[in-house]
Specification:
By secondary structure, the chain is of the alpha+beta class. The two termini are about 20 Å apart. Strand 1, helix 1 and strand 2 form a beta-alpha-beta unit. It contains 5 helices and 9 strands; from the N terminus they run βαββββαββββααα. The longest helix has 15 residues. It is globular and about 45 Å long. A 7-stranded mixed sheet has the order 1-2-5-9-8-7-6. It has a two-stranded antiparallel ribbon with strand order 3-4.
Length: about 180
């Protein structure tokens, strides 16, 4: 699969998706947008994604190679498959990463316009890594790698592993291209 090679590593940002959208609108070269601290992340339906500095992997991947893709959701699904492969976790329809029946992370695929008005798939990732506590309304459904596995993966290193695995994924032209990996998770 074609993956971006340009990395933007930010200390702090409101949202990696919003940052990526602004870069696309402005015509700036953008690929992977990684944040050590994301202040206003969001998931599906505008739900907030809560993270603290260094405890989550928060990034967006701008797939300019797939601008105008006829099935852009497959780009997001392939990204979810790469995450599941690296984390050895489950995929939960439509966009969650699961571990032991709990939500470990989420994938948000959006079609964002570039400076020419073409639609570019941008896939946002939020993965709980080092959290040991969650807000009361999430405590019964959310988990982290630290809680379930007792390990402490570093966010940027894990982000690089995911991009490396994504490069090895089949090109997501058809569902049949990624179905074997999806169904294995």
């Amino acid at each position: 699969m074609n993956v971006p090679t340009i990395w933007t590593v930010l200390d702090e940002v409101d949202s990696t998706q919003r940052y990526a959208a602004a870069c696309l609108r402005d015509g700036a070269d953008v690929g992977v947008v990684f944040a050590h601290d994301q202040l206003k992340g969001r998931g599906r339906f505008g739900r907030p994604w809560i993270s603290a500095r260094g405890e989550s992997l928060t990034m967006s991947i701008v797939f300019t190679e797939y601008t105008g893709h006829p099935r852009p959701w497959l780009v997001g699904m392939a990204t979810a498959c790469a995450c599941a492969e690296v984390l050895d976790c489950r995929l939960r329809w439509p966009n969650d990463l699961g571990l032991d029946g709990y939500k470990l992370g989420g994938i948000l695929t959006e079609l964002l316009p570039d400076r020419f008005g073409r639609t570019v798939p941008v896939v946002g990732l939020g993965i709980n890594l080092l959290q040991t506590e969650f807000p009361e309304d999430l405590a019964q459904v959310a988990t982290s790698v630290a809680i379930r596995r007792g390990s402490s993966p570093q966010p940027l290193a894990l982000a690089r592993q995911i991009i490396g695995r994504l490069a090895d994924m089949p090109d997501p032209s058809r569902w049949e291209d990624i179905e074997p990996v999806w169904t294995s998770h």
